């Protein structure tokens, strides 16, 4: 048995993957004493940087590689499930975790626990670094939520935020305001000056609107020349004052294209959250308010105060 273990550990040192061996002892009273790290291979020491002496048991190891207490507590819960899963299913279990390595850098790892090792009660845990993969996924996730032309959020993100905001309003009672912005006669800009000029106008308008908002307000492109602002302000009067600055900012701006200058106006439809609202009902009301603003010729802020 000892020979098997020695051979097994020798093989682990030849692996190009960081690995540790855990010994499970179900008889120990305290959960933290049930898992003991009995071996870390060479690749583990190179990549994560801690020798076995620095990792005497699972709990101490956790404190070294997860100095952030909150992160550690979350992970302890995950690991508890992870260990339970391994013992119950006699299979492989995987989790993703952030580890503070000995060089002080935080890296992401795919951690795989395998209880099918040949030594009874010994579990093999391998660590595959996925830091660059995680960064790429995060970058793609962010890109998928942003409008490529203007850099503000897209409709997909807005709908997610709106859903979360409706849930928050339902549970806390703190409302919010939704505004739909449309550039008036934007099609004429494209027709007169070309699509490229239209693009620049959209970018400039976004900058002007954004500069009137605070960092917590969510500005998103709804489609074409329509934008939506979600503001955590349940008083429509106050929200109106803020949005008027954005509306006025676009109005006062002189747009230049080659030898020409021109002005732009916007129409805004504004509505506030009401108890029982869904994302659809509040969007519908904002759209209706926008249409009513358009009906009076645009260049207008229409506040929906119907009941
Ligand atoms: N340049 C440019 N044009 C776009 C883009 N997306 C949509 N459009 C154009 O935006 C126009 C639609 O805008 P609308 O708001 O419906 O038309 P509008 O002239 O502003 O009409 P009103 O809103 O009623 O004042 C169409 O001509 C689209 O081709 C874009 O990314 N770039």
From TrEMBL:
- Keyword Cytoplasm present in the record's keywords: the answer is no
One function term, GO molecular function aspect? diguanylate cyclase activity
**Species in which this protein is naturally found:** Amphritea atlantica
Protein name (Swiss-Prot/TrEMBL): diguanylate cyclase
Q: What is the E.C. number? A: 2.7.7.65
For this UniProt record, give its keywords in alphabetical order, as a comma-separated list: Nucleotidyltransferase, Transferase
- GGDEF domain location is 174-306
What SMART domains does the entry give? Answer: GGDEF
Q: Does the keyword Transferase apply?
A: yes
Chemical reaction(s) catalysed:
2 GTP = 3',3'-c-di-GMP + 2 diphosphate
């Amino acid at each position: 048995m000892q020979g098997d273990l020695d051979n097994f550990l020798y093989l682990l040192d030849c692996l190009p993957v960081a690995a540790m061996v855990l010994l499970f002892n179900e008889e120990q009273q305290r959960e933290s004493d049930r898992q003991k790290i009995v071996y870390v291979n060479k690749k583990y020491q190179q990549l994560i940087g801690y020798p076995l002496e620095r990792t005497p048991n699972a709990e101490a190891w956790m404190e070294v590689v997860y100095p952030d207490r909150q992160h550690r507590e979350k992970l302890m819960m995950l690991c508890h499930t992870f260990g339970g899963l391994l013992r119950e299913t006699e299979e492989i279990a995987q989790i993703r975790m952030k580890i503070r390595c000995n060089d002080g850098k935080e890296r992401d790892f795919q951690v795989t626990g395998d209880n099918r090792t040949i030594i009874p009660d010994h579990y093999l845990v391998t660590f595959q670094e996925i830091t660059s993969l995680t960064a790429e996924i995060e970058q793609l996730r962010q890109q998928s939520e942003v409008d490529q032309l203007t850099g503000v959020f897209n409709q997909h993100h807005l709908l997610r935020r709106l859903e979360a905001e409706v849930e928050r309003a339902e549970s806390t009672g703190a409302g919010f305001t939704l505004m739909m912005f449309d550039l008036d006669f934007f099609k004429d800009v494209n027709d007169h000056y070309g699509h490229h000029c239209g693009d620049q106008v959209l970018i400039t308008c976004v900058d002007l609107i954004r500069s009137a908002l605070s960092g917590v307000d969510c500005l998103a492109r709804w489609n074409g020349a329509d934008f939506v602002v979600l503001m955590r302000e349940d008083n429509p009067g106050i929200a109106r004052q803020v949005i008027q600055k954005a509306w006025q900012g676009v109005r006062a701006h002189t747009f230049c294209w080659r030898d020409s200058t021109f002005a732009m106006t916007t129409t805004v439809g504004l509505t506030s959250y009401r108890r029982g609202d869904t994302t659809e009902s509040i969007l519908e009301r904002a759209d209706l308010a926008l249409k009513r603003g358009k009906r009076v010729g645009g260049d207008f802020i229409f506040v929906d105060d119907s009941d």
